[in-house]
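Bit of a strange request maybe. I'm writing a small parser for structure token strings and I need a real example to test against, not something I typed by hand. Could someone generate the tokens for this chain?
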Amino acid sequence: MQWSVNEIINAYSQGYFLMADEHGQNLGWFSSRQRTLIPLDARFKYPRSLQRILNQERFQIKVNAGFTAVVEGCASRETTWISTELQQIYQTLHQAGIAYSFETWQGDELAGGVLGLVIGGAFIGESMFYRIPDGSKVALVKLVEHLRQKKFMLFDAQMMNPHLARFGAYVISDRHYHGNGKNMGSPLILIRLGTFIPQ
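Reply from user aminoacidic:
Good idea to test on real output. This should exercise your parser:
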């Protein structure tokens, strides 16, 4: 691995993230002029139709029960930025207690999941996927509930898309994200100050 675990943690704490090109090659560090956050307060929302599915309790929730399968599921797309090298990095970070998968299951079948990194009081979402309809949506809702329960301060989703917007995700500027070192409300500062790990 070309970067140590500490180097990766430090880079993510400074607002960078790892990504390969659309062909799964040329893994490198990226940052964005805008950052997408998923609210952990009352601003978080989801479609009414999803509430009916949640009420039916179709899925069981597990953490890290199928970590490798979640990584592979997130990477298994026609075009993917999760290269083979990045998959290996996720495994190393998982062994170090940094990378987590928050999963939905139906019996013995993995239905979907969210892949992310825990750095301080922040959950940094890397990717999500599903095999069974609504599997990833339920995983996201239950993940937010879990982060609230564990007193996480930030859910960084990196980049906006229409799917995340339906859950109340919002965009902040890179300047706001990084803060100026004095703003204790800066998401970057919160990453450094937090001490919570999911159980």
